[in-house]
Structure formats: structure tokens, C-alpha cells
Design a protein that fits this description.
alpha+beta; Beta-galactosidase, Chain A, domain 5; nine-stranded antiparallel β-sheet
Length: 754
């Protein structure tokens, strides 16, 4: 009870009108609609920080294929919601935030009134009658005169629907619907009607996650009068179940494509509430999650507790004296960084492992959704500052994944007890090395090193065999070969940092040598990284502006070719020295990329491009900071401030590309504060140009790191002088211990480059 009132007090303080002009109104600065238009692919709705349940409306249902071909429209609905839509089809319980590929959309629930239907039940809605906050969502369903409200705990979605007076109220539970749906995605679905208000079941699907099973328990606040289901699949054999009328009031429902319904009678403005719990383990696990987290029917209590959790997490960075627009952009970005990874275990610690066996976490909380090609760059480094305990648990989850993997590999891109193998590199090594370099976490370094080494030597993964043998990935052996070579080289440097920590001299020597493999794909005659063939010759023809077929993935040679984060000085020397490299960066930002090079790339649009620099995708996120390694560090300051101002905002289109599980937003958080982790795995951050006037990072160790700017104005984007704890800082880097120990950094800003 004390915890409840404490959470309530936090929320009341955060939302108090008297506090409106301070940075402590964290909840009011969050706009979950940011990124719901164009390509942001975020979702509004109800979830807790890192919560298993992401309860959000679905505004269109698009199949993955039409007429046997990929349906481009489905890409818009990676997270189920698009701001420009006017229909709601229901409220689903699982979503990805900002990913460029998708899955999930499990358990679509829709309230209706009138003639019972399972299809064409969508309702119109308007944004004027839609409200979205961190941990809360509401909308008026015009077709049915129903007010819908959503909140959640970590593992339980809590719905409240206010009905008109009717004897024909219904809840339609659609277990056919998936995001990125296709014929055959549903493998099997089972529902049990336990009593007149409780339903349990599971659904098994295949797709991006090849074998995903989610269990659920659903409980209504009042008894339903009748129920039934429709099955949209052809069952050739049904055994002796044929003796029953399974469609109506039969307490078992099973098949591939099922839509169930539950009928009610309601009085005018009567609230019918629904608790919907998830589990990866069992229906009993889902029931336990429900009984533990939401044992009551007090919707407001759960909402207040959830918003208290959000307020606590958002308060880890306090920003003051900035415009309301910038505050909304900042705290919404911070909110986005906490939508994943998600807790993936029941309240008793049980979870389904990669091998589909059931485990109990021991000394850690198990997490899933590791979009590591994206998130190793800035999201996990941000966690090493403001979510150290969680990031430690995430690494332990990755190590558990590796032990359960028949390949002996750390996660590449994993979710819901599945490895989906998306993207390239083995970037769990970066997350591990970064935590070790920054002295964060209590995981076994020996186990971590062994897991990294095992992962890096799986010969059949993405050209690793050729990479080890030749020092590069040949394009005619494995596509996107230059990107793979560059990322493997960086990952190997990370492994060397881990082995060096353990004084393993031989391993360190081996992986430092492997980390220089980037040299083998640099063509000094043309000044670009480019693909080689298995015979050692350069692949021709070659166009460094082209995104396709040139040895790179989601980038071209101009952007991706600058990816040597672990040996930047050497890369610059290779490319002609500091002054020439600075001019090359200038050209990148100033030469306009032709439309033909991006016309067929669905995850890159003009919104995220400056010249030929692509901020709307991850491979170039470090590039604006590379001027720090030249004689023109002031250009980093200028470029960073331009990106902060033009690539982010507080409106629905406020993201210039996929948020990619929080990476895009993490870049904004770091850059707003004035520094960025160009090379995760080291303890250094590159200095930029802070957007804020004053801020505090409240560290989990109890220390506070304060950031202050003097003469901060829109035109004052250049750093004239930096002081750390009162002493002049004569370098373009900040060390992690200087943050974690607490203290104060002061930036003196100017409108003149220095």
C-alpha cells in the first residue's frame, strides 16, 4: 500500500500545474504519437518501461503478400498504427517500436455493439477524441459509442470500455491477426473458457520468429451471457470432436485461424473491464502474472502505478530551461529508449529459452528483443549510464541465449525465444565490451569472452569462414561483404578488449590482428571501401553512391565506408590525412544524392538525408563526430546541432526514419547532452555541441553528473571552452568515469568556430 501512495505522489507532483515551467513535469512532456507518421514506426498505447505488454490500437490490416508479391503497404504497419488513418480494428498486446521489419500484433481485442460480426468490425475515430500519455491511451469508438481506455502493468494489459445501454455488447478476440501476416503464419491456436469471465489459451505462429508461442489469460469484470467462435481454416480431420457443436458455448476452441466472441448486456455508461496477461511459459504463468500484478479491478490505480514508473525512469535525466517543444522532443526520445528490450519472464522468474525449454532466471531478470545492429551504437551505451542494472541483466540474458543456442552464438537480432538472424555483425560483443570498459555489471567476464569467441568463429555465418581465412568477406561468397568485413573487424576489436581485461595475451593478439581486416577492403586508388571477389580482385563495376549491389547494406560507400570506429586515426591516415578527410566529410554532407539511388529503398527517405549523409539509418550515426579527429572539431559541433534541429521534433512525423528499437532516440539524448559514444567498447565519448542549457544525470550509484552551458543560444552552436569540475578540459573526449563519479561539465558557447 505504501508503494501505491508513493507512486501516486510522484505522478501528482509530476503533473502539478505549479510545476509546469520546471523540467520535473516528465509525463506531460512525453508524446507517444511521435514517430507514428511516415517511417517512425512507433506505437501509441499503454506499456510500462521495458514492459512485456505493449497495448496499442491497430489502424489497418495489411497482408504481407498480395497476389503472391510483397505488399509495400504492409511496411507502414510495422507497429500497427499510422497517424493518418481513421479506423481502429482493435487493440493488440504486443508490438515492436520503430523496427524496419516486423512481427507480433498478438491478441487483437475489439469491443462492439449491435449485430454480432467477426469481420468488418472496425470503427471510425478522430484524433480530437484520442488521448495518449506514457502508460495510458484512450479513444472514442464512434461506430459503437464506446469510450476505450488502456493502461498496463509489466505483464498485464488493463482495458476499460464504457458502453451504452444494450443487450448486444460484444468483445471480439481476433487470434487470426498478425503484423506482417501471411497465409500459414498461424500454426495453432487454443482457447479454454475456464468460467463465465475467465479465458486462457495460447497462439503459436511462424514468421520473423520461426517458432513463437505466447500464452494468455483474459478476465472480464463481469460475466458474459454467451460465447463462441469462428474458424477460418479447413480441418480435414477433427476426430470425435465432430460430435459437438464447437461453434457456440463450447469451452474449447482450437484451430489455426480463430476469432472468438463474448456477449454481454450493459447499462448506459457501464464500464466493462478486461485484464489480459501474457506469458511465454504457460496459461498458469499468465494467471500468476495477472494475480500478482493486477489482483484488483481498480483501473486508475494501475494507471497511476504505471505512470509513477515512467516518471521515475524519465527523472533519471533532468533538463531545465529549454523550450517546451525541445522538452517534448527530449523526453519523448527518452521514453522511446525505454520501450525495449522487454522483460521476458513471469513474476516467478520462469521463461522460455531459445531451445524452447523452460528456465528460471537466477540472479537476473531475463529480457528479449535485441535489435543489436541498431542498439549497440548508442542505446546500450546510454543504458550503461542511466540503466546500469537493467543493462547488466540484458547481458546476462544474452549469455543465457548463447548457452541455449545450438550454434553457440550470442544473439544477432532475437525476440520471443527466437533468433531471426536479421542484419549483420555479432554486436552482442560490443554491448559486452562496452559494459566491461565502463566497469558496469557483475556478469562473468570469462563466460562472456568464451561466448564472444564462440560466436566469432561460426564458419557458416555470414562469410566468417572466408573472413578468417582471407581477412575479408568476398562479395561472391556472401553479399553486403564490405559492411560485414567492417563490422566483423570492429566486433573483433571488442573481443580483444574483453580478452585484454582478462590478461589473455594470445587471444588479444589474435583479435587485434583480425580487427585490422578493414584495411583489406580499402581501395586507395579511388579512396573508398569497396567489395572484393573471392579471387582477391575488386568487384566491378563499382558506384560509391549506390545503395544496392555494391557490397553494403542499408548504406553506400560514402556513409558505410567511414565505419572504422575502433581505429579512426588509422582510417583518416589511410584516406589522406586530417585535412583531406575533413573535406571528404564536407562533401558527404553537401553533395546531393540523386533520387535514383534511394528510389527503391523503403527505409530511407529524403526526410532523413542531409546531402549524401543519411541520418535516417544507423550506419552513419557516428559520422558527424568524426571531425573531432581532424583539425576541424568545430564542424562536429555545427553538424550535430543541425541534425538535432532538423531530424527530430515533437510532432507525429518527428522522426526522420525508423526509431529502430530506440537507437535513433538514443542518438538524440546523447547529442543533446553534448557527447556521444563513437566507439562502444571504449570508455570514451566524443564531445559535440549540447542543445540544453542545464541538466542533471541522476546515476544509479547515487552520484549526479551536471551539465551546464553558458551563452546558450540557437546561433551559439560552437564550443569556445569546456570546464570539467572547474578545470579547463583541453580535449575532445569525455571519459565514462568522469560521468559515473559525478561532477559538473560546463560548456561555454559561441557563434564563432574555434
Amino acid at each position: 500500500m505504501r508503494n501505491y501512495f508513493y507512486s501516486l505522489l510522484i505522478v501528482l507532483i509530476a503533473c502539478s500545474p505549479e510545476q509546469k515551467d520546471t523540467a520535473k513535469n516528465y509525463l506531460q512532456y512525453v508524446n507517444p504519437m511521435v514517430g507514428t507518421k511516415n517511417m517512425g514506426h512507433t506505437f501509441p498505447g499503454a506499456t510500462t518501461p521495458f514492459g512485456m505488454v505493449q497495448l496499442s490500437p491497430t489502424t489497418n490490416i495489411q497482408p504481407l503478400f498480395k497476389d503472391g508479391k510483397y505488399n509495400k503497404e504492409t511496411y507502414k504497419y510495422c507497429s500497427g498504427y499510422q497517424f493518418e488513418d481513421t479506423l481502429i480494428y482493435g487493440f493488440a498486446h504486443t508490438h515492436f517500436s520503430g523496427t524496419g521489419h516486423s512481427d507480433l500484433g498478438d491478441f487483437l481485442l475489439m469491443p462492439t455493439v449491435g449485430t454480432l460480426q467477426s469481420n468488418n468490425i472496425q470503427s471510425t475515430f478522430s484524433h480530437e477524441k484520442e488521448k495518449e500519455e506514457a502508460g495510458y491511451y484512450s479513444v472514442y469508438l464512434e461506430r459503437y459509442n464506446i469510450q476505450a481506455e488502456l493502461t498496463s502493468s509489466d505483464r498485464v494489459g488493463f482495458h476499460k470500455y464504457t458502453f451504452p445501454k444494450t443487450d448486444s455488447a460484444h468483445f471480439i478476440l481476433n487470434l487470426d491477426y498478425n503484423i506482417y501476416n501471411f497465409e500459414g503464419k498461424n500454426v495453432w491456436t487454443s482457447i479454454r473458457v475456464e468460467n463465465d469471465s475467465t479465458i486462457t489459451g495460447f497462439r503459436q505462429t511462424t514468421g520473423w520468429a520461426r517458432n513463437k508461442t505466447i500464452y494468455f489469460a483474459m478476465k472480464f469484470s463481469k460475466a458474459f451471457t454467451s460465447y463462441g467462435h469462428e474458424k477460418r481454416d479447413n480441418t480435414t480431420y477433427n476426430g470425435f470432436y465432430r460430435r459437438f457443436n464447437e461453434k457456440e458455448n463450447f469451452p474449447e476452441m482450437a484451430g489455426k485461424n480463430i476469432t472468438a466472441y463474448f456477449n454481454f448486456e450493459t447499462d448506459n455508461k457501464e464500464d466493462v473491464k478486461v485484464k489480459f496477461a501474457l506469458s511465454s511459459v504457460s496459461t498458469n504463468g499468465a494467471l500468476l502474472n495477472m494475480e500478482t500484478e493486477v489482483p484488483h479491478w481498480n483501473f486508475e490505480k494501475t494507471k497511476e502505478e504505471t505512470q509513477g514508473k515512467w516518471n521515475k525512469e524519465l527523472s533519471k535525466i533532468e533538463i531545465e530551461n529549454i523550450t517546451e517543444e525541445d522538452a517534448e522532443t527530449f523526453y519523448t526520445a527518452l521514453y522511446h529508449t525505454m520501450l525495449g528490450p522487454i522483460v521476458y519472464e513471469d513474476v516467478d522468474g520462469k521463461y522460455k529459452g531459445l531451445d524452447k525449454n523452460i528456465y528460471t532466471s537466477d540472479g537476473f531478470t531475463n529480457y528479449t528483443i535485441f535489435s543489436l545492429w541498431d542498439t549497440y551504437r548508442a542505446l546500450h551505451p546510454l543504458f550503461n549510464i542511466i540503466q546500469t542494472e537493467r543493462n547488466n541483466d540484458m547481458i546476462k540474458s544474452m549469455l543465457a541465449h548463447q548457452k541455449q543456442s545450438v550454434h553457440g552464438m550470442l544473439p544477432i537480432w532475437s525476440h520471443y525465444a527466437n533468433e531471426n538472424w536479421c542484419m549483420i555483425g555479432y554486436h552482442a560483443t560490443s554491448v559486452i565490451a562496452d559494459a566491461i570498459a565502463k566497469n558496469v555489471g557483475d556478469f562473468s567476464k570469462t563466460d562472456a569472452l568464451n561466448a564472444c569467441i564462440s560466436t566469432s568463429n561460426v564458419s557458416y555465418f555470414d562469410g566468417i569462414e572466408s573472413y578468417i581465412e582471407k581477412g575479408f568477406v568476398p562479395e561472391d561468397v556472401s553479399g553486403s561483404s564490405v559492411s560485414k568485413t567492417l563490422e566483423f573487424a570492429y566486433n573483433d576489436w571488442c573481443i580483444a578488449q574483453v580478452s585484454d581485461e582478462l590478461n589473455d595475451v594470445n587471444t588479444t593478439k589474435e583479435y587485434l590482428k583480425r580487427s585490422e581486416s578493414y584495411r583489406n577492403v580499402y581501395d586507395s586508388k579511388i579512396g573508398f571501401m569497396r567489395p572484393k571477389l573471392n579471387d582477391g580482385n575488386w568487384k566491378t563495376p563499382f558506384d560509391p553512391m549506390d545503395t544496392h549491389g555494391q557490397g553494403f547494406i542499408e548504406g553506400n560507400a560514402w556513409n558505410y565506408g567511414l565505419y572504422v570506429p575502433h581505429q579512426i586515426d588509422t582510417m583518416i591516415e589511410m584516406m589522406g590525412g586530417k585535412d583531406r578527410f575533413s573535406l571528404k566529410l564536407d562533401s558527404l554532407f553537401e553533395i546531393e544524392i540523386e533520387e535514383k539511388y534511394i528510389a527503391n529503398t523503403e527505409d530511407i527517405t529524403r526526410d532523413g538525408i542531409i546531402g549524401n549523409y543519411v541520418h535516417g539509418n544507423e550506419p552513419g550515426h557516428h559520422i558527424p563526430y568524426l571531425y573531432n579527429w581532424t583539425n576541424d572539431s568545430w564542424k562536429t559541433q555545427e553538424r550535430v546541432r543541425i541534425i538535432l534541429k532538423t531530424m527530430y521534433g515533437n510532432k507525429e512525423n518527428g522522426l526522420c526514419g525508423n526509431d529502430d528499437a530506440g537507437q535513433m532516440s538514443a542518438w538524440y539524448i546523447f547529442s543533446s547532452l553534448g557527447f556521444y559514444p563513437v566507439c562502444p567498447g571504449s570508455d570514451e565519448y566524443a564531445i559535440g555541441s549540447p542543445m540544453i542549457k542545464h541538466g542533471k544525470i541522476n546515476l544509479e550509484n547515487g552520484n549526479v553528473f551536471e551539465i551546464e552551458t553558458i551563452n546558450q543560444k540557437e546561433e551559439n552552436v560552437f564550443v569556445e571552452k569546456i570546464e570539467l569540475n572547474g578545470e579547463v578540459l583541453n580535449r575532445n573526449t569525455l571519459f565514462h568515469h568522469e560521468i559515473s563519479n559525478g561532477g559538473k561539465i560546463t560548456f561555454y558557447m559561441s557563434n564563432t568556430p574555434k
